[in-house]
Amino acid sequence: MQAKASGLCGLFGVCLLSGCGTYVPDTQDFPGNQGDQQLLVESVIQSVHCEVSNAISDFYEQVNQYPAMAPMAKILDNWGVQMVLSLKTEEKGTLNPTVVWTPPSPATAVFSLSGAATLSSDAIRTDKLYFYYRVRDLKNHHCPTGVHPAAPVSSPLIQTNLKFGDWLYDTLIPVGTGQISLPTSPSGPLKQNVIYYEVSFEIVTAGGLSPSWKFKRVTVNPTGTLAAATRDRTHDLQITMGPGDSTGLKGPASNAQLAGDIGLSVASGVRTLVLP
């Protein structure tokens, strides 16, 4: 706990002294370097790739035990998986000094003069990565998830279970019971069924300093926060499954992936505008 607190203090101090929000923020946390940033991206991709691979592999293992699921597996052989990884980092800094001046006057006087100034800055960096796989290339691939590299590299997307497998089975159950049907070909008339899954995490680290100086006639920063700094990390993963070939998703599946990507960008932009 002590180490964590000192790390947060160090992050805030460096961010404040270096003009937080006035430069392009680093994707990795303090005190990481360029190598840690590369390791972060690699570790997230490896973990989510294994998450999806394991879910699909487990499904095909179930097919071996329950032959009634074989038609679904045959259809999924013609499907693809498009994943979109978004790593958004936002850093904000605020400086708000206040001064109160009391002139020499009788003890009964109530006049005083105060002044304040506010300086704020906000820098946002968004890294996106698109990667595509065919289901047939993943069904025999099993690998460990949630393998965390050494600190300070970390992401909530590096987990042992992002629950994608649960959603995949929840979606395929209505297919097995005949409630919905999967398209048999990317070029066929029944190509509208798409499986879409998204998971997003947001981590906010914030801190402030409130020193005060009192002189004979002047008081500096009597109330409020003199300086504040915020680091906001949003890690988002979108997974779209649908008819596709070696070049990518086709038809409505491709449109669904694009709509989800645009929706995330719009929601992020609107949220940024309304932040104080």
Euclidean distance between termini CA atoms? 30 Å
* Biggest sheet descriptor: 5 strands, antiparallel
Multimeric state of these chains? single chain
Order of helices and strands: HHHEEEEHHEEEEEH
Mean pLDDT: 80
Q: Give the helix tally.
A: 6
Count of all domains: 1
What is the CA-atom radius of gyration, in angstroms? 26 Å
Please bin the fraction of helical residues.
Answer: 25-40%
Form type:
elongated
What percent strand?
25-35%
Question: Uncertain runs with pLDDT below 50, 5 residues or more?
Answer: 1-12
Strand pairing plus helix content: what structural class? alpha+beta
Count the E strands: 9
Structure commentary:
It is built from six helices and nine strands. The protein is α+β, with helices and mostly antiparallel strands and 276 residues long. The protein has one domain. The chain is elongated. The two termini are 30 Å apart. Residues 1-12 have low confidence and may be disordered.
